[in-house]
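In the laboratory, one determines a bound structure by crystallizing the protein with its ligand and collecting diffraction data. In a computational setting the workflow is compressed into a single prediction: the sequence and the ligand go in, and a structural description comes out. We illustrate the idea with VIB.
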Amino acid sequence: MTAPDYGRAFALWRQGAAAPWQAYTRHAFVEGLKDGTLPRESFLHYLVQDYVFLVHFSRAWALAVTKSRTLDEMKAAAATVNALVNHEMQLHVTTCAEAGIPEDALFTATERPENLAYTRYVLDAGHSGDLADLLAALAPCVLGYGEIGTRLAAERAPDTPYGDWIETYGGAEYQDLCRDTGAMIDAALARRIGPEFAAAPRWPELQAQFTRATVLEVGFWDMGMTP
Ligand SMILES: Cc1ncc(C[n+]2csc(CCO)c2C)c(N)n1
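The predicted complex, in structure-token form:
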């Protein structure tokens, strides 16, 4: 299966991080969602941690609003903050509520170090750099789930109990968001670095940020498997 097209910068970054990208998008946790063998306890533990993760990811996208230089950039980043705090986190709240975990327990859950490392790394990439640095660190999260969702929607076991999760990320709405985000990244890089951004002196550092965030995604799945 060929990977979905989320733009030029992403295609290059993904290629430049080939081994960790494979470890992230084909992780045992992902395969367990696909065939339904992931223990429920692992999934709920992941969802609680992911709720906290999304709180900090919303802060990172809010930082992208303040790092924007055009109204189009601001609109895209602000739309993502809205989607995160008002919609995506609802999947976590609803699923956890069904399992008897109330929302205030999600907001106050103790963060695992793997979670802390990832979110604060991304926030620091944004605080110490510009929008290009921040987007390089944010891209694996947004676009990786798009790629995982697409593959799992095609390959899933019909009776996996994780169908809602797969449909959230494999569905048309999320895939549109991934394409928009990929286009926004290409435009933001072209604006700051020039159209040949991959030949620029700062490209290796952007690649390194993307690769580090991908490695931190692998750590997040590992954490999910060890409740
Ligand atoms: C560990 C972890 N990595 C990625 C995502 C996916 N994700 C994070 S923010 C966001 C919306 C961006 O528009 C999406 C889809 C997640 N939930 N948890």
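Residues 50, 53-54, 57, 80, 83-84, 88, 141-142, 145, 177, 217, 220 surround VIB (CB under 6 Å). Keep in mind that any predicted model is a hypothesis to be tested, not a measurement.
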